[in-house]
Amino acid sequence: MNAWMFIWLSVIIVTLVIEISTVALSSIWLTGGGLAALLVCVFGGPWWLQVIVFFAVTFVLIYFTRPWALKYLESRKTVTNYEETIGKKVRVTETVDNRKGTGKADYKGMEWTARARDEDVVFSKGEQAKVVAVEGVKLILERSTQDEE
Predict the structure, then answer these.
(1) What is the CA radius of gyration of the chain?
(2) pTM, whole model, 2 decimals?
(3) Out of 36, 66, 119, 147, which residue is the most buried by the measure of CB atoms under 10 Å away?
(4) Structural fold of domain 82-148
């Protein structure tokens, strides 16, 4: 095994490990270029041809297949703009009691875990509350004032 074959195998392995660990469609294109360069190496192509093939195949894969892959693979992600809930009113669907560790609230048809901002405040089922913060997947609630209703 010559040095260039080792280089291309290393490029393929490293970029595959990066792609598997990130799953971000960031280095798979380099893997394809490395594979093409490795094939040129196996068939006895000179080092400069291997490098040209590596860059050419990588460019072609990025330019032609990346937009398609992003369109069809990334389209399944659900965008959640949780920041928009801050300052909005929600309906309590399960009694919110921080001491008991209970509470759920409905915002635009989605049920969220909910907690009161103040430990002593309890929200009853069906009550309206205002979202003052989002911590992880929990809505932090406080009482709505009359002006907001």
Answers:
(1) 27
(2) 0.50
(3) 36
(4) OB fold (Dihydrolipoamide Acetyltransferase, E2P) (2.40.50)
Structure confidence at residue 139 (pLDDT): 92
The one-letter amino acid at 15:
T
pLDDT tens digits, residue range 40-80?
A: 999 999 999 999 999 999 999 989 887 887 777 665 555 55
Q: Does residue 136 contact residue 127 with C-beta atoms inside 8 Å?
A: no
Give 111's contacts (C-beta < 8 A, 6+ positions apart): 93, 104, 105
Instruction: Return the number of other C-beta atoms located less than 10 Å from residue 28's C-beta.
Output: 19
Q: Which two tokens stand for residue 25?
A: 């469609």
CB neighbours of residue 81 within 10 Å:
6
Candidates 90, 82, 102, 84; CA nearest to 143 is: 90
> In angstroms, rounded to a whole number, what is the distance separating the alpha carbons of residues 16 and 28?
7
Q: Parse the chain into domains and list their residue ranges.
A: 3-76, 82-148
Contact 18, 35 (CB under 8 A): no
Alpha helix stretches (DSSP H) within the chain = 3-22, 28-42, 47-60, 66-73
Token code pair at residue 121 = 């405040």
